[in-house]
Amino acid sequence: MKEYIVAIDPGTLKIGVAILEYGTRKYVISKQFYVENKDDDWLTRSFELVANAIEFIKTYLPGKLKAVAVEDQYVKENKSTTIKLARMSGIFLGMLRATYPDFEVILVQPRKVSKLTGINENNYQVLGKSYHHAIVQYVRKVLNIPLDETHEDEAFAILIGMAA
Questions:
Q1: Do residues 163 and 112 touch, judged by C-beta distance below 8 A?
Q2: Is the whole-model pTM more than 0.85?
Q3: Strand, helix or coil at 135?
């Protein structure tokens, strides 16, 4: 049975999820999820996003879940956002563990994604209108994965999985 890695890019209003083969990091499928009601409190939104992401994983994971890759959060300008994203990763990992009790967690530092793509916050203007746009363009053109321009969290999840 093949083993797979699930990669996530957590957010407070949307979450990107990607499934890749564990050994080769070959892309299988990905999706971006949005909250239905932005007026709900943060915790309610978080559980909604994670529940939808886990249902997607349960439906499309073709084999054994070997590992989960998440971005290793670091404090930049906004400590509050960093804390919420770290909590979101914890909620996701906890809820996923209830369904898949045995998987490795891989923390991926943002610079590993930058090293993989060559895109960082200093050179993205050459590649696109914004850093997020540059990442989506990279996934679309270099990896040949069709993505909507607004699916930057899905693109990040794919790259987190490949960089893990």
A1: yes
A2: yes
A3: helix
